[in-house]
Design goal:
A: alpha+beta, Immunoglobulin-like, 2 domains, 5-stranded antiparallel β-sheet, 4-stranded mixed β-sheet, 4 helices, 9 strands, 28% strand, B: alpha+beta, Jelly Rolls, 6-stranded antiparallel β-sheet, 2 helices, 10 strands, 27% strand
Chain lengths: 189, 194
Amino acid sequence: MRSFRAAMRRLLHAVLLGLVGAGIVHIVVLLLVPEFSERDAWSRLSMASDLYRMNRLDAEAGGAPVVKSVDPLFYATACRFDLEEGMVRIKAPGNVPFWSVSVYDRSGHNVYSFNDHTATGGVLDAVVLTPAQMIDVRKDLPEELQGAIFVEAPIDEGIFVIRSFVPDDSWKPIVSRFLDQSSCELQDF
Amino acid sequence: MLKNAFLMLLSLAIAIGGGGASVWYALKIQDGVGAIRIGQWTAFPDIGTPAADPYSKARVAREGVLALGRAEGLSFVAENDAAGAQLKRECTYTIAGGFPTARFWTLYAADQSLGVVETGKPRLAALQSYEVLRQADNSVIISVGHHPMPGNWLLTDGSGRMYFVLTFYDTPIASSTGLSDVSLPRVVKVGCDA
């Protein structure tokens, strides 16, 4: 009897120890998921295209959508950039009913966002740079960058996403053209 | 000696299995940490921001989400109707009520992965605020179902679980102060196909 009780107590001890361990493993796994995920937006985009290359996110352009959870009434395009190589300039010509822009860091966190009401005349012309590059640019602002929106982001690698609203089928070609003609390039300075 | 080894293995199995499974479960359920509930609608205003909790961060990394920014919009997801029952694709629903201030909103019927429901027809399972008919008091009544209906009709198809995703674009409610007294439309079940 006594030996049975002792055995049960040791079993209980082992189970409790296991539960405490489960708590620790829970926290560790939770914090490691973002570090080691191979399925985050950056990894998916890097499989689809190079740095500074606009890449459509919606299924309309053919193939499965690269990054999910895009509104079915929206088209979207994205490019990856690395601010260590220099600042990046994003432009898109044309007028569409609504566009909005987000800058994400390497792990997919939204660092900055704005929409067409922010831009001069609704024209999408933005420059993403680090605070250090901003100081350099401020000293002598080039003529061609006067109208651009400056996004100061304390990141190195990042993702730039343009989303645009497609109210109905007749807008599809216009919005498609708007996104396909958008450019994402290293800006010399 | 053998018993000790067995107990140790048991502890390890509970720790690793339990820890892993609990993370997996916590990331799978819709209703998580940081959720804001208004009626049947759930939103994660902090998801995808650096201020998000670890669960949201892990979900973002695992699913490859690029969440909408504050200046873009805010998404609400409904998984139950007003009576608390799960939404089904074979059922008919009415979504009625006022919508908060926004430049425009979109509503679509979604499957488990929050992608739009395939209807098999040119008509999308989605509506937006520029195309809906409004009542005299500016509220909107939307009928959801597989059979054509008068007024605003959101087409769905198939069977199984369904979610409604309601997204407001360029809206003041996306800032944290605006969320306190927002009212969203009610989702009421009308009937189901046998």
